[in-house]
From TrEMBL:
Protein name in the entry: DNA-binding response regulator
One CC-aspect GO term: cytosol
Residues the record lists as 4-aspartylphosphate modifications: D62
InterPro entries the UniProt entry points to: CheY-like_superfamily, OmpR/PhoB-type_DNA-bd, Sig_transdc_resp-reg_C-effctor, Sig_transdc_resp-reg_receiver, WalR-like, WH-like_DNA-bd_sf
MF (Gene Ontology): phosphorelay response regulator activity; transcription cis-regulatory region binding
Start and end residues of each Response regulatory domain: 13-126
Organism, scientific name: Vulcanimicrobium alpinum
Amino acid sequence: MPHVTTAIAAKKKILLVDDEAAIVHSLRYNLEKNGYAVATAGDGRTAVTLAQTEHPDLVVLDIMLPLLDGIEACKEIRRSSTVPIIMLTAKDQEFDKVLALELGADDYVTKPFSLGEIMARIKARLRRVEVDAEERDESITAGDITIDPSRQRLVVRGREVSLAPKEFRLLNVLMENRGRIVTRQMLLEKVWGYDFEGEHQTISVHIRWLREKIEVDPNNPRHIITIRSRGYMFRE
């Protein structure tokens, strides 16, 4: 009898990082019940190691962790991976929320949270990754800048420039709409996600970082222009 191989889609793997055993147990149970594979860590240092060795599809990362806090762990993970990261924060950690998002987190959920909310956030974030992968990306050249989304590559005046994931996505959206005003709300939706309730200050910080990397004179930008009270425009 011939051997028949049936293709089975691999389970999405979630790295769950929290030092509260009750949260880990509850989330792990519900994630596995919904068909996800789950790896867990109780401290930031272990989380960084597992992110590098387990190659998860998404990380749920608490801010308050022993050995290495969640913000530092997020920074470490972002140095080598673009994996989606959802931060878990307490209600009084507003500063940490903003800082975490600026350092590369994709979303945050405030404790205490409902299982329905965090499961929906995880599903939406994984779906966004799938949609982005399905989109046909083509390189865009504007003046002396070329961006190639499919290869995550940016060349500025003949020199390859490295960008953080959010910076790359932000520049890509601006260049896709070059010559047109892109509102801050549109940038929040396209770069940070439709369900991100972030401050516009987050965009301003990333715009400043982008200008420092692509402009000849960041204080007098030629490409990324601020349109007062409306948003930004990429100009060739």
